[in-house]
Amino acid sequence: MRYFITFSYNGTDFHGSQSQPNGNTVQAEMEAAFATILRQPVPLTFAGRTDAGVHAEKMVAHFDIEKAVPANFGARLNNLLPPSIAVSNLRPVRDDAHARFDATARTYRYRITTRKDPFLYITHTRVAPGLDFEAMNKAAALLLGKQDFASFCRVHTDVKTTICDVREAKWVRESETEYSFVITADRFLRNMVRAVVGTFFEVGRGHMPPEAMTDVINAHHRSSAGHSAPAEGLSLVEIIYPQNIYQP
Q1: Which DSSP symbol is given to 243?
Q2: What is the set of active-site residues?
Q3: CA spacing 20 to 30 A to 89: which of 13, 34, 77, 141?
Q4: Domain range for 179
């Protein structure tokens, strides 16, 4: 049987989401909990990967097992997992359903704050007041549609294409001192959202006009975009799948 498992995590203390030789990861913690409960190794296939320090309010992974999981499996996982990881849902899916390749859309949110706050520093990036959000939203509108986003992709990344279909991109005022950038696309490249946000900061500080975002995109080279924004403000918040992949 194949299942989709939905979970969230605070990425502050992890060296990314997926297993790697050095450093603790979300995948390593989860697979260890699976092995403890099921008494066998159970590989997880994530819907995507997040870098060190990046969070996920909703991540999905699939796994295969010979028989149905126990009714209290999710609760038992939560008892074993560290406080920074929480399982919210388990759902049986078709045997060919894939957490990564069947996703039709993903949404990220990048949060910033203009004041020092001891309760926000883990999930928000602190920036100096005075960013021009009207100009940043003009630049954001230029991201919409199916385009080549190589300028925002980490170099030496092994991907077949750097074309993404961006369906939503906008800055939203959350409070007097808090703002967030929301972006939805069919797929994202490594480091793409942080590179986009770093470029917005250049626009917001008046270092480049909003319309220059088109030139950055058309350059198809990472050096044309701004520096990557810090990891702590970024969170994966939604993943959408077609309903027909789920078992009745």
Answers
A1: G
A2: 51
A3: 13
A4: 106-237
